[in-house]
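Per your request, structure below.
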């Protein structure tokens, strides 16, 4: 039960949006060409810290690696 709660807390604490829009994964499939993106250091660090719990790091890398930081 503790593992499930910890996993949920980790996923909630990940940055999934900025004022410019949603974060995207490493495939950059949903990249908006009008925005500049940068690696989300906070999400990457959370993924590294919790690498033993397979789901949070995979979720962060696949879905929330790059976050929009401004307009081009």
């Amino acid at each position: 039960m503790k593992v499930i709660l910890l996993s949920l807390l980790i996923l909630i604490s990940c940055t999934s949006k900025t004022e410019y829009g949603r974060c995207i994964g490493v495939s950059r499939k949903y990249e908006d060409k009008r925005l500049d993106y940068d690696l989300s250091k906070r999400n990457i660090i959370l993924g590294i810290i919790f690498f033993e719990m397979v789901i949070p790091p995979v979720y962060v890398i696949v879905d929330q690696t790059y976050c929009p930081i401004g307009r081009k």
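Helices lie at 2-13, 41-49, 55-63.

Regards,
D.
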